[in-house]
Amino acid sequence: MVAAAHPLAAAAGARILGNGGNAFDAAAATAATLNVVEPYMSGLAGMGMATCYIASERRVRSLNFMSLIPRKFPLEKLNSREQILRGPIPVGSPGNLAGWCEMVSTYGTKKLPELFAPAIAVARDGFGLIEFNVEEIGGVTYELRGKDKLYPEWSRTYLEGISGGQPALGAVLKQPNLAKTLEALAAEGPALMYGGALGKKVVERLAELGGTLTMDDLMDFKAHWIDPVAATYRGRTIHVPPPPCEAFQYLLTLRILEGFDLGKLPRNGTEHIDTVLRAIRIAAGVRIANSAPSQQKLAELLSDSHVESLRARVRDGKPVVGPTEQWTPPASEGHTTSFSIADKHGNMVCVTQSLGSVFGSGVVVPGTGICLNNFLYWADVTPGSPNRVKQGDAMPICVAPSIVTEDGKPVLALGTPGSYGILQTQVQALVQYVDFGLPLQQAIEAPRARLNDGRAVLLESRVDAQVRDELRSRGHDLSSGPDWTMKVGGMQGVALRDGTFTGGCDPRRDGYVVPA
Questions:
Q1: Fewer CB atoms inside 10 Å of the end CB: C or N, the chain?
Q2: C-beta separation of 11 from 125 below 8 A
Q3: Which Pfam family, any one of them, does this sequence belong to (predicted)?
Q4: Which helix (H) or strand (E) holds 135?
Q5: Rounded distance, CA 81 to CA 186, Å?
Q6: Is residue 208 part of a domain?
Q7: Tally of domains in the chain
Q8: pLDDT tens digits, residue range 31-89?
Q9: Is position 99 within any domain?
C-alpha cells in the first residue's frame, strides 16, 4: 500500500509493488513521480530523511539525506535569514536523489530504469493540473516575476510547459527537460549528479548567479543510515531520526502526554485540546533551548524525572507562553511532502522530504528541469544565537518520518509536511488514532491546530465554538482557521493491524492511497 500526496505518485509506487518490487523500490518510484507532479515541494535536488522497518533485519533504521553547510557558505556576510530566502546562496547539495538511490541500492530489488519509468512518462507526456497544483504554481508566479535572474528559466519550465501558459484546472503541464534528466539518471546512476556532468551544470549555474556551492560539496555528499531514537507511548514504540533532526520534540510531547488519560476526556473537547496544546508548546521550548542535543543530553531530556517536571507545568493551569519555531524570528511555511509505504514482506518506509520553500531557491538549472532547494534559509545565521551554524555543520531539520512498532513489529508509518508544525500535528493525529481509537483516515481528518510563537494558535473551525471560547479563556491566543487548512500539514500513513493494511491520506492536500 502507498499513501502519498498526489494520486499519480501513489499509483507509481503501487505499480512497482504490483510488479514484484518492495517498499524501498516503491519509495524511489513514488518520490521521483512526486518530483514531477508537485515540483514546488520536493524534487530530486531537495533534502529529507526516512525511517524504515527492515523486515529482513527485524529492525528500524533511519536514512539521512540532508546536506552539510557548504564549505564556502558566506556566513560572515549574513545577519538575517531573510537575506537568503531566494537565489543561489541558500542552495545546499541535492540530497533527495542520493536518498532514493541509497534505499534502492541497499534494500531494493529493482533497477532505476524501471523505478523512474512512471515519472519519466508523466514528465514527458504531461499531467492535468489539480487544485493544489494551480494554487502553488500560481501563488509563486508574482513573486518570482520580480526576480530577473530567476524568472526566465523558471517560467520556461513551469509556465510555458503548461497548455495555455497559465495554471488552470485541467491544463496539462509537460516537463520534457526533467524527463530527459530522469532518463539520464536512470541510465547512469547518481554519480551523474555527484561529480558528473549533471552536477557540473548545477554548480556552473549557481556560480553564474553568485552562489557558493562547489563540486567538492557535491562529491562529498552521501546519504547515510543511522540508528533512530525512540520513545514509548501507550505500549507502542515511536521511532524517528536522531538529532540534528528535531523530531525529538515529537517524542518529548508524547512522553509528556502519556501522563494524562486523554482517552477518558471528551474528544475534541476543551480538556483534550488544552492539554495537547500545552504539552506541544512546552516541548517546543525544550527543543529550541537544546538544539541538536548529544545522545547523553537527549536521554536526560526524555528521562522520567525531566518529563514529570514538564507534566507538572501542563497541570498547573497557568498560560504557557513561548516560541515554537526557532531561536531566530519565525520561519515561513515550508513546502514539504511525506509518503508512507508498506509491502507484503513486512517492510515499512516513511519519507519526509522538501525543497524548503515553495519552489525552493527559485533557481532552475537550464536544460535540466531541476529546481534547486533553499534549505540554508532554515539555518540559523543570526549573530549571537546559541544555535548559529558553521561551515561543515550538519543541517538541522524539523521533519519526523516515523515508524511505530508494537512488540517489535511495525504497525504504523506516519509522516507529514508543515515546517515546525510537523512536530505538532503528528502528535495530534497520533492521539486521535491511539487514545481515541479512530481509524487512521478519520484520525488524519480530525481537526488540528498549528501553534506559533508566543501564545498564538490557529485551530481549524470544525471544533465547537464553545470549546474555542474556553481555550481562549485558558490563555491561548486562538484564531479560527477555515474548516480545513494546509497550515496544519498534509499527513499520509499506512497502518497494519491483524494482517490488514489500512491507508490514510490528507484531504488538506491532494493525498491519495493506492493498494497493490
A1: C
A2: no
A3: G_glu_transpept
A4: helix 131-145
A5: 36
A6: no
A7: 1
A8: 999 999 999 988 999 999 999 999 999 999 999 999 888 888 888 787 776 788 899 99
A9: no
